[in-house]
Design brief:
Structural class: mainly alpha
Distance between the termini: 39 Å
Strand content: under 5%
Shape: globular
Largest sheet: none
Order of helices and strands: HHHHHHHH
Length: 193
Amino acid sequence: MDDAALVEQFRKGDVGAFEELVRRYQDKVMATCVRMLGNHADAEDAAQEVFVKVYDALPRFDPRAKFSTWLYRISTNHCLNVLRARKVRRFFSLQRTEPEADGYLPSAQCDPGPGPDGAVEQEECGRALWKAIDSLPESQKVATVLARFGNLSYAEIAEVMETTVSAVESILHRAKRQLYRELSDLLEEGPQV
């Protein structure tokens, strides 16, 4: 059964249809939240809150839209709200949380090289990439996460971000340039990112 049929079943009162949608998308939503928030615990909370929002809003979902794109939009908007709230808290507390080392962090795709130093270099490379992505302006971060880690097409990203495909291309071009500047030292001296 495709997503549209499940949404229709849910609208008719079949809660099991919603549970199937959650099973289909929970890993993708969780991965997006971890990559956006950089913290596994916050991402778990965010992912749960996203599905609560989806449950509440699903009766008003426009069936002409693609469910997965709508879900990504809710996920990214929720994460952006969490990040904004975090910035306010950080401003007052001067605390800074570091991204956790778990399976959801972006892989830098570094060449680990031979020996035990290879794994350390790969981890350092991943952290450098994460910090560089985290430093991007909001729109560039969202587009990068959706393109690089969500594997969404430019058209899908445009729909999630409520913009045009050409705007997404421009945003991603600027993001790539910024990431290259941030990571140029790493690219020149060490493993490939």
